[in-house]
Design brief:
The chain contains eight helices and six strands; from the N terminus they run ααααβαββαβαββα. By secondary structure, it is of the alpha+beta class. Helix 1 packs across helix 3, helix 1 crosses helix 4 and helix 3 packs across helix 4.
Length: about 220
């Protein structure tokens, strides 16, 4: 059974998060997008149609999306503090048993301090270490002999410390990543715990990142 023009246009928009976001914010050039998807829509509805029909379907859907946004934010207002750590460096290494042993020893040796930053991310084949510059000598000594895949300096870590378990509120991570992507922020690392959400970015993006993360309180 062939679908309607409106249904087909909705499906195309819904399957592309960026297009849907642009449409809901009135950033999308409906005429240009209609031209790009015309063949797909015609195939779905089983007949030749005019561009105006697709444009009208897009505009009707945009009104619905705008109304939905106006009725309430996609996520509730959140209470949190932002903790920023500057002068962060990172190493990405090839994972093996020897490296895991070194990390275990390193973690035991490092002092616990809220003023400094250290994060170990153990993946299937790789290990990431993000740490404050203060720990560089200890980290480099610990990973000596391991295969380094990538390393970078001059990073900044932002941690959103929530007053309650943010993981119980759907959509927060998606919303944060989406807002950063809209500002063309290259997110180097994302780490979450029960009450904290941490983003690591390049220092050049630190001011914009702070403004984006702070915007969750501006409801």
């Amino acid at each position: 059974m062939k679908g309607s023009i409106s249904e087909t246009v909705r499906n195309l928009v819904d399957n592309s998060p960026y297009i849907k976001e642009m449409l809901s914010r009135n950033f999308l050039n409906c005429s240009s997008y209609a031209s790009a998807v015309k063949e797909k829509v015609e195939e779905a509805v089983g007949k030749t149609i005019g561009l105006n029909s697709i444009v009208m379907a897009l505009r009707r859907y945009a009104l619905e999306l705008n109304f939905s946004t106006d009725q309430g934010s996609r996520i509730p207002a959140l209470e949190y503090q932002i903790v920023m750590h500057t002068n962060i460096f990172d190493y990405n290494l090839e994972k093996d048993e020897a490296l895991l042993g070194k990390i275990s020893v390193l973690y035991q040796e490092l002092p616990s301090s809220h003023r400094e930053f250290i994060n170990f991310i153990v993946g299937t084949n790789e290990v990431g270490i993000f740490a404050s510059e203060k720990y560089r000598e200890q980290v480099e000594r610990a990973i000596h002999g391991s295969k380094v895949l990538h390393n970078e300096d001059s990073l900044v870590a932002f941690t959103m410390v929530f007053s309650g378990p943010f993981l119980q509120t759907p959509g927060i991570i998606h919303e944060a990543v989406q807002r950063l992507a809209w500002e063309d922020i290259n997110l180097l690392e994302l780490v979450s715990t029960l009450n904290e959400l941490t983003f690591v970015v390049k220092s050049i993006d630190s001011v914009t990142t702070y403004k984006v993360l702070q915007s969750f309180q501006e409801k």
